[in-house]
């Protein structure tokens, strides 16, 4: 028998252990804050603690581990983390913590195995199917053999949810309305919620700014390859590769920047082209870059320049599956924006349903929301966003500007994301909760069918 404690900030795993793991002694309900965990550990040390690295409280994750190890240096800790972090993993190893589960990849069977494992060295062994899982498989086989139609419908429904449609999402506006801010915040919010592979493609070739929002170097950084040779990853290097027929998926993946905080988000940082160089550009350069990106990524978020005469701006807008056109709540901006929107629909032949309006930098001094919506009544509105004053501070300091939006603004970004079909990231807790709900549904189906048989008999 093992004494198990959970500090997850959610009761579902604790409840699962109580209901399904007879060899676990679970004395306490799930602990939901750091101070409570430390207080309980001072009075009772478990054989195994399941800990969420994001457990609410006053300490950062390393300080919390230090506090726990001051109480007891030797008991087993299984920690659930949001993403892989090698530096943090090294630190955990130094504290005798070797069982690290990634939240959106871990399975309950892996958690149970980690608790039961006596040694502290991870050895790759063939996993035995837990008893509770074997029972679930028997029940499922019984359902398949006796009532195949019910199960077939359920499987088809689950498969339909996992269809990933590719989207090209472009932002456009007049100058200084906040395109780059909007598209980067939207892409980051999306990457946190989705399993999709995402690229931010900076097609603003006159004033590229995406890299500033992430605090990364521009595309023209020099890198070492083949020993001590170097090459410059700028637009000339890329365009030369296109001319030579050597531009391929591997080269594109080489020049993108991998965002360190989200492993499914890549950034193609700004290609700044001078007026003297623009005459030598070929029309197909940006089209080839976009087509190659489409062969790799599920979602492509494209930032553009406000010069609608640029070929790359027109390409980004006409190729998009969704265009967010940003406006400000002033008469001058709305009049000028309306003319651009007429260009899109009447000359470029863009369907109105592809265009949505985002009102940015909205304040009490702007026109009323109803007046703005009436002015552009032909188009759907996605939201009204206020200017985050923190950006002024970051702009002045030259610091990265991809910020955590305030809750009110975050809800607006999440509402926009509901328009798109994507496979959501699901944590261990969410997947376990869904499995429990599915078991309840299956029991209800069996019970209903048994009652039907009795009534017919």
Write the layout of secondary structure elements.
Elements: E1 2-7, H1 12-20, E2 24-25, H2 34-41, E3 48-52, H3 61-71, E4 76-81, H4 86-94, E5 99-102, H5 108-116, H6 131-146, H7 148-161, E6 167-173, H8 179-193, E7 198-203, H9 210-214, E8 222-225, E9 229-232, H10 235-244, H11 249-255, E10 257-258, E11 265-268, H12 275-278, H13 284-294, E12 299-304, H14 311-318, E13 322-327, H15 331-347, E14 355-359, H16 369-375, E15 380-384, H17 390-397, H18 407-417, H19 428-456
Parallel strand pairs: 1-2, 1-3, 3-4, 4-5, 6-12, 6-13, 7-11, 7-12, 13-14, 14-15
Antiparallel strand pairs: 8-9, 10-11
Helix pairs in contact: 6-7, 8-18
What would a concise description of this structure say?
This protein has 457 residues and is an alpha/beta fold. The chain is 46% helix and 16% strand.
